[in-house]
Amino acid sequence: MSILDRDSLNAFCRHTHVELPPTASGPLDGLTFGLKDLFDVAGHRTGFGSPDWLRTHPAADAHAPVLAALLAAGAHLVGKTHTEEMAFSLTGENAHYGTPVNPAAPDRVPGGSSSGSASAVAGGLVDFAIGSDTGGSVRAPASFCGIYGIRPTHGRISLQGACPLAPMFDTCGWFARDADVLARVGHVLLDTSILTPLPRVRLLVATDAFAQATPAAAAALAPAVAAVEALFGTAEPVVLAPEGLAAWFDVFRVLQYADIWQTHAEWVQATRPAFGAQVAARFEAVSHVDMREAAAMTAKRVVIREHLASLLAGDTVLLMPTAPDVAPMRGLPPKETVAVRERMLALLCPAGLGGLPQLSLPLASVNGLPVGLSLLAAPGKDEALLMCARLLHGAHDRP
Questions:
Q1: Is 57 helix (H, G, I), strand (E, B) or coil?
Q2: Which residues of the chain have pLDDT under 50?
Q3: What pTM, to 2 d.p., does this model score?
Q4: What is the rounded distance in angstroms from the CA atom of residue 204 to the CA atom of residue 237?
Q5: Residues 6+ apart with CB under 8 A from 234
Q6: Of 78, 87, 115, 369, which cross-links 110 as Cys (Cβ 3.0–4.6 Å)?
Q7: What is the rounded distance in angstroms from the CA atom of residue 349 to the CA atom of residue 355?
Q8: How confident is the model over 274-310, as pLDDT tens digits?
């Protein structure tokens, strides 16, 4: 029986469906996974959440290296998962293919753009799923759906055979319901060991990031922070963004928009795709980006990266809310969606600006709705975050 016969969540693509068995045996033996429909599968077309992209691009010549590695490690691909158009969304509401269900809150969005992958994992359809994260497209859905999700260090995992949004910030991320599976996938994709002893961790807690969260979300996350401190020691309060998180978001927005337009201007102008209303508005804004402003923001990003490198030096892990609140309601008016998006990106942008790994932990809820606590570390410290998650998962399971 196909996964499509069991998918009542609209997590999987009907228009680009493909299933592949493992090509070898390895550390992921017996695990099933979904693949965000921006990664190539040999002999199949990649949809990228857009009927016009699907129509104007040929079948792939080869598997994306990410897919090949997972199949070689023993995992079974059961299908391609929905993404928002061009991966340009944080809600996951695709105007052409519908919105995957958030199993933790069916009347709310699952988060985007890796909406189908998060929905499939949260709903128990697969053991893990692959997504991508440019501005928060793994971290936000992980928080909204109550699952684990990691954005790795920028450039750590190959994006060959993956449709780009903004290469300056694009990463391959993944979701799981438990930290052990998350780490096992990391072992394969990062080509490393997650089993080495964790060095002594220096904990920080970002006071300005917690101030961005709603009072209810911040209160719900307090016991989660305490649980991390119980394992690793008291967290030192710090200000993550001395210039303000809103100022950092401005830097991210301008650089991301410039990168998106440089990447997709030729195709958009030649094809004139029929984007959904909200993605169309974003591409209209992207087309008017000021490249002189982008150059100025590049210099500001250098200062931000230097600050983050100093703040997170050594074996430092910083705690912050993944998102400022629980998942928004489905079908919000455009103005409200823009406001939600910008508030979320103010919290999500530091990892992108710094090229940092960030892992969202499903450790809290507000009135039964999930909110994620994030671990942030220096570039290359992905393994440490995965081990922290494993230890916290084990401690959480103990009576």
A1: coil
A2: 398-399
A3: 0.97
A4: 6
A5: 203
A6: 115
A7: 10
A8: 999 999 999 999 999 999 999 999 999 999 999 999 9
Instruction: Count the alpha carbons within 13 Å of 355 in the hemisphere toward its beta carbon.
Output: 13
3-state DSSP call for residue 65?
A: helix
For residue 75, give both structure tokens.
Answer: 């995992």
Buried b (16+ CB within 10 A) or exposed e, 281-295: ebbeebeebeeeebe
Tell me the CA end-to-end span of the chain in Å, nearest whole number. 39
Q: Which DSSP helix (H) or strand (E) runs through 225?
A: helix 215-232
Both tokens of 144, joined, read 């909204």
What helix, strand, coil percent values describe the chain, rounded to 5?
Answer: 40, 15, 40
Q: Which residue has the tokens 């040999």?
A: 42
Q: Distance (Å, rounded) from C-alpha 265 to C-alpha 363?
A: 41
Q: What SS3 string covers 19-30?
A: CECCCCCCCCCC
Q: What are the residue numbers of the active site?
A: 36, 113, 137
Task: Please provide the size of the chain in residues.
Answer: 399
d(CA 356, CA 353): 8
Spell out the alpha helix ranges (H) of the chain: 3-6, 51-56, 65-72, 115-122, 139-145, 179-189, 207-212, 215-232, 245-271, 277-286, 291-311, 334-354, 382-397
Q: Give CA separation, 195 vs 6, 74, 171, 198, 237, in Å.
A: 35, 19, 23, 8, 29
DSSP letters for 167-187: TTT-EEEEEESSHHHHHHHHH
Tell me if 148 sits within 8 A of 37, measured CB to CB. no
The closest alpha carbon to 248, from 276, 206, 195, belongs to 206
Per the omega criterion (within 30 degrees of 0), is the bond before 113 cis?
yes
Report d(CA 151, CA 173) in Å as an integer: 5
Closest CA to 102 of 115, 113, 114, 88: 115
- pLDDT tens-digit map of 328-359: 999 999 999 999 999 999 999 999 999 999 99
Pick from 163, 135, 168, 169: nearest CA to 60? 163
